[in-house]
Each structure stands twice: as structure tokens, then as C-alpha cells.
């Protein structure tokens, strides 16, 4: 146990050492690839990278010890609670999609004599307790839960609206419940999971920020249209990119293209093929096999949960690759290792740019503008 702990410290210390030697541009790239927050200067960038690296190192250790690691990513919502679960085995190159679902919390977890989830603490307590039990008892327990952080206000309001407040409370209490369940059941291997509050901006940046959109929008929409002028920070544009990206990934998974970032269980393969093959405008909703009680028939919640889960797998992959580089000389400084470290970050950005290019030619239609849908 002491040996493994020293190895972890050495790995993180080595990452820190080479971050200190790298320039700000390299740190910005590295933060993007491992899902760390961007810093305003080198010092904060390094701190953010190390914070994320510590979590990823723990995931890496679990993968090494158990020959597999799993993550369940949650996009919180009262009527549109979506989640996706991926696993990644040590002897496999790609993560495996295990679960992808969306549920209405008040329909599934409110007591029978109550029909609306209000801000009453009793409603919050009942729903989130039942939800926590569902995630940790009825479903296979993952190595890590990642809960998408919710913004405090809608895009257009200066005040906190009640539906948004409900989702903020849901996020906070669910995080607390999952953390505290570990504390109250110490020593039980079944509950030996981690919990992360996952910034949606980092996930969106990883999948969308390098996507070239200007040419695609100007070609596919009239010159003076709202669509042709959308910028990357537009919620409508990023939502459209993410939905189309998930469709790309699913098409690759069933063999329609050579773009393979995930593998599928036989059940998921059969289900997806039945909706994707021969249907260019398939819906993620249909692919996930959702029924009438699963909330609004829209794809953005499912796309967010899917991409959040897969992002953590890709961030872990990038961390493992960086870790292997910085430990080449047992974590000691070496000029050649620094050159490899810098070159890796440079090539990784080029590869990500090339990958994201593939989504731009699909932006022939955009998701319709709509108000925030928290209820």
C-alpha cells in the first residue's frame, strides 16, 4: 500500500515538475485534454491541472487494480434527469457503453399521494433519497459518479427562477447524499466509489471549442439569418454540435463509419442499429429506448450525459499518456522528456482539431431556440 501511494505521489509530482517547466500555451492545451479548469496564469493553471490529475490518478489506479474502471455521468434535471455509464477495461482500446437513460424524478420517486415536486424540504428529501438508493442499489455501482454542475441563473434572467433553484438543490443534495453514503458505510467495497462535480463548460470545450463552424453556417444558412451569425458561446450552436457529435459516435460504433471512440454490448449494438441504419435523421431519444414517462422528447440532455461520461474516459486516456511521458526518467527532470511532453500536447491539439472538423459538415440544421427547460 505504501509502495502504491509513493507511486501516486511520484506521478503527480512529475506532472507538476513538467508543468512548471512548460509554457502557458502548453498548460492551456493540457488542461483541455484532461478536463482541468483553465487558469488565469501559470500558477493557477498548474494548480487546476494537479487537482484534476489527482482524481484521474485514482481512476487509473482502480483500472490497474481491477482491470476495468467505470464512470456514471449525470445531467441533473427534475423532468429530464439523464445519465450514461461507460466502462473501460485494461485490455481494451475503447470504452464500452453500458447504460444510457433519462427519467422523470417526480414520476419515479415521489410518494404515490404526491404528484408535484415543490421546494418543500420533504419533497426534496424523499425524491433525492430514493434517487440515491436507485443509483447505488438498483444500478451497478460505478467507480465514479460525475454530476454536471448547474448554473445558478437562466441565460436571460437576473433572478434565480424556482425551476432552476430546484435543479441546483437537486445537484447539491445528490452530491452530498452520495458522498455521505460512503462515509456512513465505510469499509464496504460495494460503496467504494468517488464523486465529482463536473463542470459542463470543460466538457463542452473538449468536444466543441475547436470545431470550425463559420464556413459551415455561412454555407448552410442565409447570409442575414440568425443561424449564420451564431458564435461558439451560443447555447443553441453548442447544443447542436454535441447532438450531432453523439450521432457521429453512434454511427461509428455500429460500423457505418471508421470513427470509433466507443464499443457496444450486443444489446446496445442491436438496439442502435435498428434506429440508425437507413435513417439519416434518427433521434437520440429513440436510440436510448425511452418510453412516454421519460420526460420531454428531446436529445440535448441525453447528449450531455453521454459526452460527459465519454469525456471522463478520454481525459483518463490523456492523463495516462502524459503520465507515461513524465515518468520516463522516474519523474526526474530531463530535457528530452520535456520536449516529448510539449510535443505530445501540440500533437494532441492537432488531432482534436481534426476530429472536431468532422462535426462541422453536419450543421445543416440547428436545434431550435428554446427557453431553459428545467422542469
From TrEMBL:
Residues 71-321 form the Mitochondrial resolvase Ydc2 catalytic domain. Pfam families: Ydc2-catalyt (PF09159). SUPFAM superfamilies: Ribonuclease H-like (SSF53098). Transmembrane segments: none annotated. One of its GO terms (cellular component) is mitochondrion. GO terms for molecular function: crossed form four-way junction DNA binding; DNA endonuclease activity; flap-structured DNA binding; Y-form DNA binding. PANTHER family: CRUCIFORM CUTTING ENDONUCLEASE 1, MITOCHONDRIAL-RELATED (PTHR28072:SF1). This is Mitochondrial resolvase Ydc2 catalytic domain-containing protein.
Amino acid at each position: 500500500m505504501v509502495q502504491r501511494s509513493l507511486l501516486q505521489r511520484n506521478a503527480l509530482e512529475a506532472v507538476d515538475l513538467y508543468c512548471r517547466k512548460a509554457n502557458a500555451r502548453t498548460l492551456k492545451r493540457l488542461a483541455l485534454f484532461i478536463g482541468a479548469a483553465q487558469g488565469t496564469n501559470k500558477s493557477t493553471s498548474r494548480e487546476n491541472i494537479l487537482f484534476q490529475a489527482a482524481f484521474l490518478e485514482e481512476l487509473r489506479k482502480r483500472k490497474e487494480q481491477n482491470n476495468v474502471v467505470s464512470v456514471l455521468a449525470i445531467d441533473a434535471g427534475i423532468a429530464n434527469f439523464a445519465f450514461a455509464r461507460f466502462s473501460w477495461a485494461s485490455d481494451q482500446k475503447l470504452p464500452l457503453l453500458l447504460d444510457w437513460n433519462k427519467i422523470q424524478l417526480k414520476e419515479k420517486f415521489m410518494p404515490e399521494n404526491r404528484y408535484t415536486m415543490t421546494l418543500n424540504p420533504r419533497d426534496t428529501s424523499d425524491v433525492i433519497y430514493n434517487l440515491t438508493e436507485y443509483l447505488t442499489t438498483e444500478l451497478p455501482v460505478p467507480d465514479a459518479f460525475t454530476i454536471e454542475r448547474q448554473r445558478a441563473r437562466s441565460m436571460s434572467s437576473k433572478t434565480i427562477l424556482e425551476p432552476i433553484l430546484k435543479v441546483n438543490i437537486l445537484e447539491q443534495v445528490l452530491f452530498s447524499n452520495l458522498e455521505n453514503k460512503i462515509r456512513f458505510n465505510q469499509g464496504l467495497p460495494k460503496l467504494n466509489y468517488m464523486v465529482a462535480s463536473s463542470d459542463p463548460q470543460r466538457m463542452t470545450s473538449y468536444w466543441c471549442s475547436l470545431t470550425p463552424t463559420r464556413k459551415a453556417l455561412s454555407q448552410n444558412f442565409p447570409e442575414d439569418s440568425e443561424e449564420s451569425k451564431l458564435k461558439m458561446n451560443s447555447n443553441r450552436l453548442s447544443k447542436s454540435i454535441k447532438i450531432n457529435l453523439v450521432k457521429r459516435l453512434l454511427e461509428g460504433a455500429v460500423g457505418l463509419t471508421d470513427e470509433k471512440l466507443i464499443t457496444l454490448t450486443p444489446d446496445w449494438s442491436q438496439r442502435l442499429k435498428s434506429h440508425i441504419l437507413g435513417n439519416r435523421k434518427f433521434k437520440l431519444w429513440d436510440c436510448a429506448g425511452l418510453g412516454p414517462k421519460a420526460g420531454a422528447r428531446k436529445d440535448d440532455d441525453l447528449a450531455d450525459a453521454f459526452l460527459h461520461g465519454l469525456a471522463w474516459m478520454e481525459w483518463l486516456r490523456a492523463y495516462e499518456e502524459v503520465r507515461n511521458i513524465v515518468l520516463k526518467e522516474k519523474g526526474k527532470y530531463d530535457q528530452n522528456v520535456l520536449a516529448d511532453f510539449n510535443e505530445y500536447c501540440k500533437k494532441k491539439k492537432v488531432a482534436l482539431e481534426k476530429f472536431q472538423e468532422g462535426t462541422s459538415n453536419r450543421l445543416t440544421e440547428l436545434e431550435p431556440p428554446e427557453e431553459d427547460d428545467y422542469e
